[in-house]
Specification:
This protein has 146 residues and is of the alpha+beta class. Helix content is 17%, strand content 42%. The strands form 3 sheets. A 4-stranded antiparallel sheet has the order 3-4-5-6, with helices on one face. Strands 7-8-9-10 form a 4-stranded antiparallel sheet, with no helix packed on it. Strands 1-2 form a two-stranded antiparallel sheet. The two termini are 25 Å apart.
Length: 146
């Protein structure tokens, strides 16, 4: 059942409304990491949360990656939000029963935290000033989808 639930969540982030957000076949080129974002020790919990590093769009800068998150909860798999940056690291710092996720982007450390009001992770902090216009548009498009 978990695989089926995860499949439904993945189909949720592949589309925005009735339109495709990512191109068809994108999952075959994505990288998937199993992580534990909840409290407690990871080896005590199964299954893990999943982070998908999505392939770049045509005009996407090489240091700008989009990551999509599937959280495993006691109620099943749910969409957990998205991250951006060059790479991600999961910290041991806990807020609202979830670990903080850090990303690096052009020399800056970005912070993502679970937001109980949304039930998802989100960017914490001020918008970065060193984003290009195309990247700001891409972020806006990404934010519109949820």
């Amino acid at each position: 059942m978990r695989a089926q639930e995860t499949g439904y969540v993945v189909s949720e982030f592949l589309r925005y409304g009735s339109d495709a957000f990512y191109p068809a076949g994108v999952l075959t080129h994505s990288k998937v990491a199993a992580v534990w974002l909840g409290m407690g020790r990871a080896h005590d919990r199964e299954p893990s949360d999943l982070i998908f590093r999505m392939p770049r769009f045509e005009d996407q800068a090489p240091d700008f990656n989009l990551f999509e998150l599937v959280l495993q909860t006691s109620l099943g798999a749910v969409y957990g939000g998205w991250f951006f940056g060059d790479f991600l690291s999961v910290t041991d710092e806990i807020e609202f029963c979830h670990r903080i996720v850090l990303s690096e982007f052009r020399g800056e450390t970005l912070r993502f935290a679970y937001k109980p009001s949304d039930g998802r992770y989100g960017f914490v902090g001020d918008m970065l000033s060193n984003l290009s216009t195309a990247e700001v548009r891409m972020l806006a498009k990404s934010r519109q989808k949820f």
